[in-house]
Specification:
The protein is α+β, with helices and mostly antiparallel strands and about 200 residues long. About 55% of the residues lie in helices and about 10% in strands. A hairpin with a 2-residue loop joins strand 3 and strand 4. Helix 1 crosses helix 7, helix 1 packs across helix 9 and helix 7 packs across helix 8. The protein binds glutathione. Glutathione (GSH) binds next to loops.
Length: about 200
């Protein structure tokens, strides 16, 4: 049975679609927009939170996008997953760091610059959120001084998980010039064919 991803590319499901492309999986996207998530019975039957994304992988149901990505990478192994316990620890570390230290600020900036209708946007809130990202961005920039990728000497699911969030900040107008290592890394990640394919599904 094909992996079913519930969500749309213009939602957090993007990160699950990107990973499925990286892994060369056969998958089907069940289009559910975030605005319809709470009333979609198919989704509610899988995810008690009624949020996208969720997956049904031949009867294995998982929600929370990071859990989905760690599950898929672990199941299918290969270059994107950990080779040993140390890499696994670093993959968890960076994946959780992205969602706990960066995601809410990146989303707040995106809402006030792009996602919400003009009348709901407050520019000061966008600026405040982007300022809050300066510290984690500086940390990431300095971590990437001596290496090309976050958790290993190659692109892993950790890079995918973090790059997707930082992509939101970039789209919201975050100036990346003070962070040259981060900027180069983000471009390495998002120029991958699988990332481009997933991005093309947003249109
Ligand atoms: N912590 C969840 C958050 C999921 C989430 O907030 N999804 C949004 C779309 S990206 C959603 O479904 N919003 C609709 C709603 O909350 O009603 C995850 O990372 O998967």
């Amino acid at each position: 049975m094909t992996l079913k991803i519930f969500g749309i590319a213009r939602s957090r499901a993007f990160r699950n679609i990107w990973l499925s492309e990286e892994l060369g999986l056969a998958y089907e996207v069940i289009d559910i927009a975030p605005s319809d998530a709470h009333k979609d019975e198919r989704l509610r039957a899988l995810n008690p939170n009624a949020r996208v994304p969720a997956i049904d992988d031949d009867g294995v149901v998982i929600w929370e996008l990071i859990a989905i990505n760690l599950y898929l990478a672990g199941k299918h192994r290969g270059e994107l997953s950990a080779d040993d316990a140390a890499e696994y620890g670093r993959i968890l570390q960076w994946s959780f760091w992205g969602v706990t230290e960066c995601e809410s600020f990146a989303l707040e900036a995106l809402r006030h610059r792009m996602l919400w209708p003009e009348e709901r946007r407050v520019e000061a809130k966008a600026i405040e959120a982007l300022v809050a990202l300066e510290r984690p961005f500086a940390i990431l920039n300095s971590e990437l001084e001596a290496r090309e990728y976050l958790a290993a000497d190659r692109f892993t699911v950790a890079d995918l998980n973090v790059a997707s969030i930082l992509g939101w900040a970039k789209a919201a107008g975050m100036d990346l010039e003070p962070y040259p290592n981060l900027k180069a890394w983000l471009s390495r990640c998002t120029s991958r064919p699988a990332a481009r394919k997933a991005a093309s599904m947003m249109r």
